[in-house]
Every structure is written in structure tokens, then in C-alpha cells.
Design a protein that fits this description.
about 400 residues, alpha/beta, 7-stranded mixed beta sheet
């Protein structure tokens, strides 16, 4: 199945595979495979649950139920049309398709999780004698109302990023010197981004007067409606000690050369398993994302050797999109900035990245030297919605002092 779909993608999406057809076709097939594993199977359960509650509520005739069933089946597979986005010539049509797909995706995920919690609370209330049993239709509309309310709240939360401050004191930082770093992660510029959201982020970054600006992956996602406007906005950002970026998994899905060119136009120094020295006491190392291996573009390097190049007297700051921390490297760096998890983005899905990556969002002290900061992300993947996982820009102040963080 993966091979045949790969051939279809390769035939009908030349813009996506024109850079490295073999690697990108493999990327697309892997992306499709992951879609089945992580989206298709759960989505099937979520849609079945929604249809079952709809059917039990007796809100439609048999023919109406068949229409709802066909709609649910169609929407299970709707995310699979996204790799064909290059076939859509009109940005407005692409925006509409993308909007309907991702909003429904958010709806069905939220309906499933919150309806289960609601049904549990109703059952406890019934057992406690607080109220009598209610009809299935009433139960369905309560769950539906909660879900719709959460969608509106989630859009408000996604539209209201906050600034998270992290102060790091370390004896390696030159006395009397303070370095302010502003980190963006997981902005996910795509079909729904026409400027306002990015304008807000750019304004927030400028207000912090950073010495260094970093993008820790997934800055772009898919084809945008006004790419020149977005690159011009990001190019406005100025940092006297430099702007640096690494790839996340979505830069590979968007196209390697296209992503590199986008970062260049935005004024970022792209780091792929490379080191930079913005100051004499600060070394900044950007590691590639594991997706590079998945698409056949891995650069085999000795990470410990690269970290040792920074020198023992230097404060070593690591940029790595996914919060992966090999235990063998813990004594070779001081702070790692990561993103990727979005803190689940939609409550209660924070549980998934917590299990997969072991570390919570925010600051974690790993040992006497190394620390990890996982950002909740500055944007959203898919639906412009966040539930109890507000987007952020992260401000890291490096100062001289005893080794700590907070």
C-alpha cells in the first residue's frame, strides 16, 4: 500500500518531490504510513463513537443516519488529501479545504475525549443521586455543546500567545554580561496563515529586544497563501548576535530546498549538525531532526565530538527540535531548547508526548550541568486551536552566577 500510494503522490505532486524525488517520495510514503497508524486508526474509533452517539440519540431517519455514516467515513480519510495540496492552484480553495479538514479533526478529537469525561461525570452524578437518567439525545447535545464551546475557547487560546521567561545563571557567562535569547518553535506557517498571527509573534519578539533569535524547527508546514509577506515579516526581526534555525520534521515534509530557501530569505543562519560562536563564551549547536533519517537524508555525525568542539569553558546551547536527550551527552552541554510536543495542543492529549518523550513542557534540570527546556510551541499544527496549552515565545536570559535555572 505504501509503495502504490508513493507512486501516486510522486505522479500527481511534482512540486513536492522535485528536489529529491527518491527521498521525498519515501518521505511522503512514510508520512502516509504514519497517517494511517497515528491518525487513521484513532480517527476511525473517534468517528465511530460520534456516529454511535448520534444514532442512539434518534435524531434522524434511517436515510439520515446513512448520510451521517458516509460523512464520517469520508472525514476519516480527509487528512489524506493534504499531500495533494499542490494540485490545488487557488490558495483560497486550499485554505478552505485545509480549514474544513483540520477544524473537523479538532472537533472529533475533542468530542471523543470530552464526551467520555462527560458521560463519566453523568454516570457518577446518577449513582450519587444528584439527578435522574437523561435521554440519549440530551446526553448527545450536552457533549456537542461542550465540544463547540471548547472549539471557540481553543481558538481564543491559540490567538493569545504568552511570553515565558527563563533565567539561566552560569559561571561560564562573562561577568557583567547578559545575553537575551528569544526562541520560536512550531510556528507551522501554512495555508491558514495570511499574516496577522505572524505579525503578532514578530511584534512580541521585537518587544523583548533579543540579542539572539532562534527557531527550533517547524517554522513552516505547507504551502502558504502569501509567502513573500511572511518572509518579509520574519526578515524584520533583528538580533545583533544573529538569528539561527534548525529543521523540524515539517521542514522535511514541506521540501528541504524550499525550507532552506525560506529560512535564508527570513535571515536565519541554518544549522544542520553545525556549531556557531555568537560570543567568546557561548557556543550554539544545531542538530538535525530524526526525520532526516526517515527520508534518506541523514548526515551521520558523532554528536559528542561536535559538542566537545565547543570547549569546556564555553556555555553550550543545543537546538534540537524533538526533546531527545541521549544520556551519553548529558555532561557535554548546558542547555537544550526543544519543541515539537505542543504540550499535546488539545487537552487531554498532553498525555501522549509526556509518555513518548518522558519530559514535561517547561524547564527540567537533567544533571549537575545539563538542563532541558521544552516549549509548548509558538503556533499550532493543523487546527488553530489550543486547549490548556497556550502557545508561547520563550525568552532565555543568560547571566553570570551559580549554575541553575528557573
Amino acid at each position: 500500500t505504501v509503495i502504490s500510494w508513493s507512486k501516486i503522490f510522486k505522479k500527481y505532486t511534482p512540486g513536492f518531490v522535485e528536489v529529491q524525488s527518491l527521498s521525498c517520495s519515501f518521505s511522503i510514503s512514510q508520512k502516509f504510513k504514519f497517517s494511517i497508524r497515528f491518525s487513521g486508526m484513532p480517527d476511525s474509533v473517534f468517528h465511530w463513537h460520534f456516529f454511535h452517539m448520534f444514532q442512539c440519540a434518534h435524531l434522524a431517519s434511517k436515510s439520515g443516519e446513512w448520510v451521517m455514516l458516509l460523512f464520517c467515513v469520508l472525514m476519516v480519510f480527509s487528512p489524506m488529501v493534504l499531500p495533494f495540496s499542490n494540485l490545488v492552484k487557488s490558495p483560497e480553495v486550499l485554505e478552505l479545504i485545509f480549514f474544513v479538514t483540520v477544524i473537523w479533526m479538532a472537533f472529533i478529537w475533542l468530542f471523543f475525549s470530552w464526551s467520555l469525561m462527560t458521560k463519566g461525570l453523568l454516570w457518577l452524578g446518577k449513582m450519587a443521586g444528584c439527578f435522574s437518567a437523561m435521554t440519549k439525545s440530551t446526553e448527545f447535545f450536552i457533549c456537542l455543546g461542550i465540544t463547540i464551546g471548547l472549539l471557540f475557547y481553543g481558538h481564543f487560546e491559540a490567538s493569545s500567545p504568552v511570553v515565558e521567561y527563563l533565567q539561566i545563571k552560569n559561571s561560564k557567562i562573562q561577568k557583567g554580561c547578559k545575553i537575551r535569547i528569544v526562541a520560536l518553535t512550531d510556528v507551522h506557517l501554512g495555508p491558514l496563515e495570511n499574516g496577522p498571527r505572524l505579525e503578532r509573534l514578530v511584534k512580541m519578539v521585537k518587544e523583548q529586544h533579543p540579542d539572539i533569535i532562534i527557531s527550533v524547527g517547524d517554522l513552516i508546514d505547507m504551502r502558504t497563501k502569501e509567502p513573500e509577506k511572511l518572509t518579509n515579516l520574519l526578515a524584520e526581526l533583528f538580533a545583533p548576535l544573529g538569528k539561527f534555525a534548525v529543521f523540524g520534521n515539517h521542514e522535511y515534509f514541506a521540501g528541504v530546498e524550499e525550507s532552506k530557501e525560506f529560512l535564508k530569505k527570513c535571515g536565519f543562519d541554518f544549522l544542520r549538525n553545525e556549531i556557531r560562536h555568537p560570543t567568546g563564551f557561548l557556543s550554539l549547536i544545531g542538530f538535525d531532526d530524526p526525520t532526516a533519517k526517515m527520508v534518506g537524508m541523514e548526515q551521520k555525525i558523532d554528536e559528542s565530538k561536535l559538542l566537545l568542539e565547543a570547549g569546556k569553558e564555553s556555555f553550550v546551547l543545543v537546538l534540537r527540535h524533538q526533546p531527545l536527550v541521549p544520556s551519553s551527552l548529558l555532561d557535554l552541554f548546558d542547555l537544550q531548547i526543544s519543541g515539537h510536543t505542543h504540550q499535546g495542543q488539545l487537552f487531554p492529549f498532553f498525555i501522549v508526548p509526556r509518555i513518548v518523550y518522558s519530559f514535561p513542557s517547561g524547564f527540567t534540570k537533567l544533571n549537575n550541568r545539563a538542563s532541558l527546556y521544552i516549549s509548548r510551541g509558538s503556533g499550532e499544527w493543523g487546527p488553530p486551536i489550543r486547549i490548556f496549552a497556550r502557545s508561547e515565545i520563550t525568552v532565555i536570559d543568560l547571566e553570570n552566577g551559580s549554575n541553575d535555572g528557573g
